[in-house]
Amino acid sequence: MSDENAQPSVPAFRLRVDVWSVTAALIAAVVLVPIVAVFWLAAFPTENIWPHLLSTTLPRYLSNTVVLMLGTGVLACVVGTVTAWIVAMHDFPGRRWLSSALLLPLAIPAYVGAYALVDFLEYAGPVQTALRASFGWATSRDYWFPDIRSMPAAILVIGLSLYPYVYLLARTAFSEQSGAGFEVARALGAGPFARFWRVGMPLARPAIAAGTAVVMMEAVNDFGVVDFFGVQTLTTGIFSVWLSGGNAGGAAQIACVILILIAGLVSIERRSRRRRRFWQAPRAMRPVSRSRLTGGAALSAMLVCLAPVLAGFAFPVSVMGWHAVMEADNWLAPGLARAVVNTLSVAGIASILTVGLALVMVYGVRMAGRRIPQLLLPVTTVGYAAPGAVLGLGVLIPLAAFDNRLADMILAISGWDPGLIVTGSAGALVLAYIVRFFAIGQGAADAALGRIPPSLPLAARSLGRSPAATLRAIHLPLMRGSIAMALLLVFVDAVKELPATLLLRPFGFDTLATRVHDQASLERLSEAAPAALVITAVGLLAVLLLARAEVVRR
C-alpha cells in the first residue's frame, strides 16, 4: 500500500573528491609558494627602501646584470653554434671524440673556473711571476696586466662554462636538417659561410635561441663568480640588502626585478621562435652528408673545437688538481668528509622527492583531465627560471614564520620549546632544491609518459587495476631510463647549487659548494681544491652519461 503523504526520496549528497586533481594542486602549491612569497614581501615590506634602492644601488645592479647576461649569451651563442656546426657538418680526425668532449664544461661549476683563473693569472700566480722573472720587472708598476677580477673575466668564465647548452641544442638542430637544402645551395654556388648563414642558421635559430636563453638565465643566477670578481649584480644585491642590511623586503623587491627580467627574457625568446616557423616534408628528409676536411682545414676545425674544452674544462681541473696534489693533506680534512656526507644526503633526498613529486603531478594531471591542473602544470616550471637567491628568500621567510608559530604552539601545549624544526635543519634546503629543479623532473616525466602507448594503461584499467597500480605495474617499468636520468640531473644540479645553499643552510652545515666558496673567498684555494674536484667528478658522471645517450641516439 502506498502512502500518499510520503515525500519523494532525495538522493543523498555525495562529495566526490578527485584525489589526483587535489594531489596535483597541492604539489603545485608547494612549488609556487616561494615565488608568491617573494612578491608578497616586496609588496608589503616592513621598511620600504625601494626609493632608496632606486636612487642609489639598483641602477648599478641592473646595468651590470644586463651586461653580464648579454655578454655571456653572445659568447656562449658564438662558441656553441660554431662548434656545433663544425661537428655536425664536417668530418675530420678526432670529430667523434670532440663531439662528446665539448659537453665537459657542464661538469664544472662556473665559480670553480673563476677561482682557477684568478689563481693562475693573479700577481702571485705563475703567469705574472714568470713575466717578472723573464723581463726583470720588480713590481706591478713596471708593467701592465689586465684586471682579472672584472666584468669581462666574469663573462669569459661563465660563458665558457655554459656554452654546452647552446652547443647541444644547436648540434641536434643541425644534424636533423635535410641534406637536400645544402646540396641545392652548393649547386647554386653558395660557399661554406653562405650555406651556414642562409640555410643552416635559419632552421636552427629556434634551438639556438632556446639554448642562449638558458645561458642568460643561468648567468643571472650566478653568485660565486660575480661575488669573487667583485661585480655587483642583482643577485649579489639580494645578499647585500638582506644579510648585510637586514631588510628582507628590500631584498624581495630586488628579487622581483630579477623575476621580471627573467620573464621578459623568456617572453622575447618565445616570441622570436613564434615569428619564424619552418617545416620539412618527411619524404624530403635526407641526412646531411658531412664533408671531409683535410690538411689545414682539418687542423683548424680540431683547434676551434678543442679550445673551449681546454679553457672550460681542462684548465680549471688542472689548476685544482695541482693544488690538490701539492697539498694532499687537505683530502683528510674533517670538514671535507662532513661536507661530502651533507651534500650526498641533501642532494639525494632532494632528487628523489623532486622526481617523485613531478611524476605524481604529471600522472595526476593526465588522470584527472581537469582544466585547472592542466593550467598549473606549466606554471610549476617557473622555479627553474628563478635564481637560487630568489628562491632562498622565498623559502626562508615563509618557513621561518611557520616554524615560529609551530614552536609557539608546541610550547603552549607541552611546555617544551622544540626550536626551529624546518629552517633549523636541512629541510628548507631540500625544499629550495625541489622548487628550483622541479622543471627537470616534470619534463622527464611528461616526455616519458607521452612515449607510452595509451593502449597499455587502458588494458590494465580494463582488467581492474587502479590508477596507482597501473602506474606501478605499467608506467614505471617503461620509464626507468628517463627517471634515472632525471634523478641524476637533479642530483648533480643540487650538488653544484651555491646561492640557495648559502642562504638556507643551517648553522655549521657545509656542503661541497659552500666549502669551496668559503675557502676560496679566504684565498685558501688548496683547501678548496679537493671539494671542487669532488663536485667535478659528480658532474662528470652526468655529462658522460649524457654524452653516451647522445651517441646512442645518433
> How many H/I helices?
24
Question: How would a textbook summarize the main sheet?
Answer: 2 strands, parallel
Q: What Rg do the Cα atoms give?
A: 27 Å
Strand content: under 5%
What is the fourth-level CATH superfamily of the largest domain?
Answer: MetI-like
Q: How does CATH name the architecture of the largest domain? A: Orthogonal Bundle
Q: Given this structure, which CATH class of the largest domain is correct?
A: Mainly Alpha
Task: Describe the protein's architecture and organization.
Helix 1 crosses helix 12, helix 1 crosses helix 14 and helix 21 runs antiparallel to helix 24. A two-stranded parallel sheet has the order 1-2. The chain has 2 domains: 239 residues, MetI-like fold (Orthogonal Bundle), CATH 1.10.3720.10; 205 residues, MetI-like fold (Orthogonal Bundle). The radius of gyration is 27 Å and the shape is globular. With 554 residues, it is mainly α.
Sum up the structure in keywords.
mainly alpha, two-stranded parallel ribbon, MetI-like fold, 554 residues, 2 strands
Task: List the topology elements.
Elements: H1 19-43, H2 50-55, H3 58-89, E1 90-91, H4 95-101, H5 110-121, H6 126-135, H7 151-175, H8 179-187, H9 192-221, H10 224-229, H11 234-244, H12 248-275, E2 291-292, H13 295-326, H14 334-368, H15 371-379, H16 382-385, H17 388-414, H18 427-450, H19 455-462, H20 467-478, H21 480-496, H22 499-504, H23 512-521, H24 525-553
Parallel strand pairs: 1-2
Helix pairs in contact: 1-12, 1-14, 1-15, 1-17, 1-18, 3-7, 3-9, 3-11, 3-13, 4-13, 5-7, 5-13, 7-9, 8-9, 9-12, 11-12, 12-17, 13-24, 14-18, 14-21, 17-18, 18-21, 19-20, 21-24, 23-24
